[in-house]
Design a protein that fits this description.
Elements lengths: L4 E5 L11 H12 L8 E5 H7 L3 E3 L7 H9 L4 H10 L1 E6 L1 H7 L1 H5 L5 H10 L3 E6 L2 E4 L12 E3 L5 H16 L4 E9 L6 E9 L25 H13 L8 E5 L10 H4 L3 H24 L1
């Protein structure tokens, strides 16, 4: 029987740069998951990695640029927050969340925990900015206010793959076990209502399974077989990590069969300059199809 287990690790300590995060993980795993086992996949939310690495921002210390001030007035966003968006990367798209929420209120209200609180959140964040952060398209550029003190927010680790390698090496030093480490973050889905956790960085696991054109049950080569294992692991871990006050920022996936690798998430990402070219190519093919379908 094939079985995969997922253990959520509850953390009660305040996370700060003084914390030895790998040691904290090893200690929590010992008391809550029978210790670290060789081959475990350790999934860590980016927020606690950010806090350990000093990526916690006090908005009082953020000086908005003139550009940020102008855009903040247009998009009803605090200038300090707009400044952080601009620093995060290049804004690729702006989605009017408040307008969509008003237009499709029946859909939004179907999933809210508290209508009044939901309206307050939407009023505070009337627009969703899709930002290119070093080749990763992230909502609000990874700037996150949840589970941080009022007036504070976190940004994603500067190099998530490097952070994952460092944590993995330290866990091996402490336990002698070789594990995979994935740093996860939550992203809004653009094709349907809801969020899903994705991998920002990884170490010790081949990010994508190398089975393209492998044979199916009938011996035919399959157009597929390239599962994004890091994203799938991040999404699976979120089933125990949660999104609000669970205090379970780390999960251990045990029993997953994967190819060990020194590659990271960045190795599986499209280069930013190539992504632009592909976007242009897709747009051209789409308009060509629309034109041909009218005259066919």
């Amino acid at each position: 029987m094939k079985k995969i287990e997922i253990f959520g690790l509850k953390i009660t300590e305040d996370i700060s740069p003084e914390i030895d995060l790998p040691e904290l993980i090893v200690r929590a795993a010992k008391s809550q998951a029978g210790g670290i086992v060789d081959g475990d996949v350790v999934v860590i939310t980016s927020k606690i990695v950010s806090k350990v690495e000093g990526q916690l921002h006090n908005l009082k210390n953020v000086k908005p640029s003139p550009k940020a001030r102008r855009l903040s007035r247009i998009y009803k966003t605090p200038p300090e927050v707009m400044e952080l968006y601009l620093r995060a990367g290049e804004i690729r798209a702006v989605i009017p969340i408040k307008k969509l929420a008003d237009k499709y209120r029946h859909l939004f209200e179907k999933y809210v925990a508290d209508r009044e609180a939901a309206q307050k959140v939407i009023n505070e964040h009337p627009y969703l900015f899709l930002i290119d952060v070093d080749g990763r398209l992230l909502t609000w550029g990874g700037i996150d206010f949840s589970n941080s003190p009022p007036g504070y927010c976190t940004s994603i680790p500067k190099d998530p793959d490097k952070s994952a390698r460092r944590i993995r090496a330290r866990i091996r030093e402490l336990t002698g076990m070789d594990v995979a480490v994935i740093i996860s973050d939550t992203e809004w889905k653009l094709d349907k209502f809801g969020t899903i956790d994705i991998a920002l960085g990884s170490s010790g696991i081949m990010p994508v399974s190398r089975k393209f054109a492998g044979k199916d049950l009938y011996g035919k080569p399959k157009f597929g077989g390239v599962d994004d294992l890091t994203d799938l692991s991040a999404a699976a871990a979120n089933l125990v990590i949660g999104q609000t006050d669970e205090a379970l920022p780390i999960a251990i996936i045990r029993g997953l069969k994967y190819e060990r690798s020194e590659q990271g998430v960045r190795d599986a990402a499209y280069p930013t300059n190539e992504l632009r070219k592909v976007t242009i190519l897709l747009a051209r093919e789409y308009f060509k199809f629309k034109l041909l379908s009218k005259i066919a």
